[in-house]
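Troubleshooting log. The previous structure file for this entry was overwritten by mistake, so regenerating from the original sequence record. Sequence copied from the archived sheet and checked twice against the printout by T.R.
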Amino acid sequence: MNDTPEYIYKIATREQWEKALGVGVFFGAPIDLQDGYIHFSTAEQARETAAKHFHGQTDLKLVKIATASLGDALRWEVSRGGALFPHLYAELSTADAVSVIDLGEDDNGGHIFPDNM
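Regenerated output below.
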């Protein structure tokens, strides 16, 4: 993919991320395990991903990952609306997390993202 973004994002539950921290590896959420890769979003895609797949869920984490740390296991594939989405065909080392923040919720079941993604 041309113009690969410097960072991509994974939305995970607190429980999933804490489990990953315990072993040093994030193997993926149930949908990731089912599909055979870890789903990520770009900064531009993350809000829509949250609205589509996580609406009304609380206790979520936004995990920021540098694309350069993922090597050839990161692939850009056509998904929702024909857009290219980042998919990781490997486990994710928790050490690769640049930052992990809590996603706040608004009054309508949506999520509050940081401005500086």
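The longest strand covers residues 97-105. Archived copy saved in two places this time.
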